[in-house]
Design goal:
4-stranded mixed β-sheet; 16 strands; 27% strand; 9 helices; Translation Initiation Factor IF3; 354 residues; 31% helix
């Protein structure tokens, strides 16, 4: 049993998610203390609790002291990872994307294929959108050898949630390949989606896309942003959202196959124009740094690089506490060797296998 201080560095829920996920993967029990003590609502939130329970279900393990608000839990993993079909409902608008990122490192090391239906929020603040996962994170991981696909079944927004995605993964045939990309190259194209649910009369999707395109065109880019309206007459997915909401996601692809993404969800008193300008601005800021990943992918890749067979090396827009926390954790739990040189992240993976 290893003890992990959940209040280290960022002190965010990321430490809980990664620690439980890596515990299930390695078979080493973990005790997590000081969970989210730096946050306004400290302790486990529903999405963290559901994530721990989901990992426990996949490895036939157990979670001790598992309740909302717990500042300390123990995760006792089982002896193997089971694929198959799973249905996880967060029960709130908690992020389905963050739960997916918790399950991905486990599912690819199952002995059987796995399918997850996850219900909760798909588009909200402080978490990547479902579009970002599908069009940025998943393609990058596929270059590392991960075989996974994501389908949006129903849009879901804060505060009601009730959105759902389906994620399918196939067991790794070989060890994960390292991720090395040091120079971005020129941008070859920018794509994206401007989605709104039950807001067609206000032309929210069009307004987000237009504001974003104006900002990008001013810098010489010609983005292709698809405008989508999710309505009761023409639902964009299998089911229409139960509430109004919006999300804009864009990503730039470079000649060296970098993917740099940016997204933002709608919120009360946040105009469509504000979303469009901010999403474009964040993308432009990351591109101007010369990084080979965006500010979010920078830390999301760390667990996978630590599990890979070889040394990963990539350039980040800036070194954040999330990056430092995740590097510290993979050293503690996997024995990976990590280093930061200026804005370059270097991870010597452990070559994990079933």
């Amino acid at each position: 049993m290893i003890t992990i201080n959940g209040g280290h560095k960022s002190g965010s829920g990321t430490i809980v998610r990664d620690a439980v996920s890596l515990s299930a993967l390695t078979g080493q029990g973990v005790e997590i203390t000081n969970i989210r003590t730096k946050r306004d609502k400290p302790g486990l939130r529903p999405q963290h609790l559901k994530g721990a329970e989901a990992c426990g279900q996949i490895c036939r393990g157990r979670v001790e002291n598992a309740k909302v608000g717990s500042k300390e839990i123990r995760f006792c993993p089982g002896e193997r990872l089971y694929g198959g079909n799973y249905d996880f409902d967060i029960g709130t608008a908690g992020s389905t994307a963050l739960l997916t990122s918790m399950l991905l490192p486990i599912s690819i090391f199952c002995e059987e294929a796995a399918t997850f239906k996850i219900t909760g929020g798909l588009f909200q603040d402080f978490a990547p959108s479902a579009y970002y996962l599908k069009h940025v994170l998943f393609p990058v991981l596929q270059h590392m050898g991960l075989d996974a696909e994501l389908k949006i079944l129903q849009a879901g927004y804060y505060p009601k949630g009730h959105g759902s995605i389906q994620v399918k993964t196939v067991p790794l045939r070989k060890k994960l390949r390292p991720f090395t990309l040091l120079a971005p190259g020129e941008v070859s194209r920018i794509d994206g989606f401007a989605l709104s649910s039950l807001l067609e009369e206000r032309k929210v999707s069009d307004r987000m896309a237009e504001a974003c395109q104006i900002s990008l065109r001013a810098k010489g880019y010609n983005p292709a942003i698809r405008v989508i309206y999710d309505t009761k007459q023409n639902p964009a997915f299998d089911k229409v959202s139960i509430q109004a909401g919006a999300s804009l996601a864009i990503w730039a692809k470079t000649e060296n196959n970098c993917l740099i993404g940016s997204d933002m969800a709608g919120a009360l008193r946040r105009s469509a124009e504000t979303i469009g300008k901010q999403v474009a601005g964040n993308l432009l800021d990351d591109l101007e740094t010369g990084a080979t990943v965006d500010r979010y992918l920078a830390d999301q890749l760390i667990p996978f690089c630590a599990l890979a067979d070889g040394t990963s090396e990539y350039t980040v827009p800036q070194v954040t506490e999330h990056i430092e926390s995740r590097l510290w954790l993979v050293e503690e739990m996997l024995g990976a060797k990590t280093e930061i040189k200026d804005n370059r992240v270097i991870i010597k993976g452990v070559g994990h296998q079933r």
